[in-house]
Amino acid sequence: MRSRIHGTEERVPRGPQPTLTARERFILNALWSGMDSNQIAEQLGLSVETVKTVRQRLRQKYQVSNVAQLMRAALTHGDLDV
């Protein structure tokens, strides 16, 4: 069945490949697995604010505004271990 909505598909900007730190890569994969900031902070022994800062930095690096777009961009760039 064809979609009734045309032209609404969001495109992920495919700019240069962002360089990720080990911590950023871990948090990206933790988000992909469904963990929230509290769970990630507990697992890494960090504060929740630190995890939120890293999430914000990831959104800036991928030039997206929310986690769903972040996951889509990371998949597009091949940065998730799926």
Report on this model:
The structure is a single chain. This protein is mainly α. It has a domain at 22-77: Arc Repressor Mutant, subunit A (Orthogonal Bundle), CATH 1.10.10.10. The chain is built from four helices and no strands. It has helices spanning 22-32, 37-44, 48-62, 67-77. Helix 1 (22-32) crosses helix 3 and helix 2 (37-44) packs across helix 3. The longest helix is centred in the C-terminal third of the chain and has 15 residues, at 48-62.
Q: What's the helix-strand series?
A: HHHH
Query: Which oligomeric form is depicted?
Result: single chain
- Fraction of helical residues: 40-55%
Distance between the termini: 29 Å
Rg of Cα set:
14 Å
Please indicate the percent range of residues in DSSP E strands (runs of 2 or more).
Answer: under 5%
Largest sheet: none
Descriptors:
mainly alpha; 82 residues
In short:
Helices cover 55% and strands 0% of the residues. The chain has helices spanning 22-32, 37-44, 48-62, 67-77.
Secondary structure blueprint with pairings:
Layout: H1 22-32, H2 37-44, H3 48-62, H4 67-77
